[in-house]
Amino acid sequence: MSQHLVKDVEKTDSTSSGEVSESSSFTDEKTVVSTGTDVQTIVYDVPEKRGNRVTRFLQYTFFSTYRKLFTFTFFANLAVFIGFVAKTKGAPLASDVVDATAANLMVCILFRQENFVNVVYEIFTRAPQSLPIWIRTDLAKVFHYGGAHSGTGVASVVWFILYTAVVTRNYVLDPTIAARGVVITAYFLLACFLFILIAAHPTFRVKFHDSFEATHRFAGWTIVIAFWTSFMLAADEQRRINHIPLGLQIAKTPAFWFLCVITFCIILTWLRLRHRDVYPEVLSNHAIRLHFKYRPLKPFYGVRVSTRPLMEWHAFATIPDDDENGKITGYSFVVSNAGDWTDSIIKNPPKKLWIRGDPLYGLLISARLFKSYIIVATGSGIGPFLSLIHANLAPCRILWSTPSPETTYGQTIINTVLKADPKAIIWNTRERGRPDMVALTYQLVQESNAEAVFIISNPKVTRLVVYGMETRGVPAYGAIFDS
After folding, report:
1. Cα(420)–Cα(81) distance, rounded to whole angstroms?
2. CA nearest 265: which of 116, 101, 103?
3. Distance from C-alpha of 242 to C-alpha of 387, rounded to nearest angstrom
4. The pLDDT value given to residue 15
5. Strands 425-428 and 396-402
6. What distance in Å separates the CA atoms of residue 439 and residue 378, rounded to the nearest whole number?
7. Comparing C-alpha atoms, which of 61, 2, 64, 60 is closest to residue 33?
8. Terminal Cα distance for the chain, rounded
9. What is the pLDDT of residues 290-327, one digit of tens each?
10. What does the DSSP 8-state code read for residue 294?
11. Which of 295, 290, 288, 289 is CA-nearest to residue 278?
């Protein structure tokens, strides 16, 4: 493999204030870059970041698209909540409150259902490239849809707190056996809601991810079962008051239909659980590529796999696998050593893995919106980009920083990268140390006049590059880690 960049640089870091510190030895210095057989000298001139420390923090960190979606969803609910309580003079009907709770819970679940999310992606990323760039850059942030998931989730808890207060008041005024059952299930549900809400805090999720995933799943199922129980008890009580059949009371209640959608979404995902054959391709003692042949899969999709389907799931962006005629016959994904589970997969390549749900679109489908873009990857982050490279949507430049690329990932992947971009910068960190990712990315943007940057890396580098580009007026997109 040709040598692609031959200058060591200082590391980049973050300060405790949230402002990103970028120490670049590239600025105003000449660096030799070899691309294939050509050698050229490049001057790296990274401009100052826009605004001041406070305005940058507010615009690019605090008010992220994810948080904007969360804020809009939650406060829209809060406005309705306040108006509803005021209109009813503090005495709303329990059935109206439970409808609001179930509606929010349904939207929360829909934003985790594969088919629904894929439709959302299709709507946002099919916009024509003739639209102004500022519209397309906003549409490309559709992958922040997790803000709607968490916003409606928190709102449903707020509504349910009100519901619990209402049914408690009703029981105090009329302590029937049916009302007692409604109150008991309501408090049990409220405890489950609060448990999920606390466990979903990003700090807890990051430190105890596997535990979070299991508790989120089992507590969620418990909530659905308990919600149905509480709903049926309340419906039975209400039909006695209205003197109508139970079936009619249930059918005329919106919460019933919301609960049906919720239950269907959960069951559908697990009805698609399959134990699939795996064809491993060992790349090195640090990485493995797992191939699947049961179905062809086009670019931009991701799948969730597991060895213990009730306990933990791992999401991977897929790469289409072609036959000798260029026809897609299956798919694969690259696994690198990033923890106990991945380490066991590499050391003991599986013959079968569990796969759940339908394939799900991911971040990189937003590349449809741009006429040209920069691909930035570190380590196994190049794997998902192989799907984008396969799609061949538009001209691209590639920056890939990784230790010992030939030894770790093999010549096939390197050849794929160089075929897409003969001038790709493949930085061997084992030989050269860590590069200044912001300076190199900005240089490629200037060279190619690219409309956007896409990065797949660890959280620290992803935030660094996205922040470094956005504060210099370059649209940049990377996975978010609080969804």
Report:
1. 53
2. 116
3. 58
4. 39
5. parallel
6. 15
7. 2
8. 38
9. 999 999 999 999 999 999 998 889 999 999 999 888 89
10. S
11. 290
C-alpha to C-alpha distances, 419 to 165, 395, 411, 422, 424, nearest whole angstrom: 64, 12, 12, 6, 9
CB 449 within 8 A of CB 32: no
Residue whose entry in the numeric block shows the structure tokens 């309501």: 186
DSSP state of 369: G
Which of these, 434, 442, 423, lies nearest to 378 by C-alpha position? Answer: 434
- Torsion angles phi and psi, residue 9, rounded to 5: -135, 165
Segment (H or E) for 178: helix 177-199
Q: What is the pLDDT of residues 159-213, one digit of tens each?
A: 999 999 999 999 998 888 888 988 999 999 999 999 998 888 877 777 777 677 7
- According to DSSP, the β-strands at 279-282 and 287-292 are antiparallel
Dist CA 408 CA 412 (whole Å): 11
> What is the spatial distance between Cα 443 and Cα 30, in angstroms, rounded to a whole number?
12
Q: Which two tokens stand for residue 143?
A: 């992958």
d(CA 406, CA 415): 10
Q: Are 403 and 428 in contact (CB under 8 A)?
A: yes
Query: How big is the CA angle at 297 (ends 293 and 298), to the nearest 5 degrees?
Result: 150
Per the CB < 8 A criterion, the answer to whether 192 and 200 are in contact is no
Cα–Cα distance list, 405 to 140, 219, 378, 457 (Å): 30, 43, 10, 15
The structure tokens 């389907």 sit at: 309
The most distant pair of C-alpha atoms in the chain lies apart, rounded to whole Å, by 87
Q: What tokens were used for 218?
A: 């089992």
The pairing of strands 30-35 and 38-43 is antiparallel
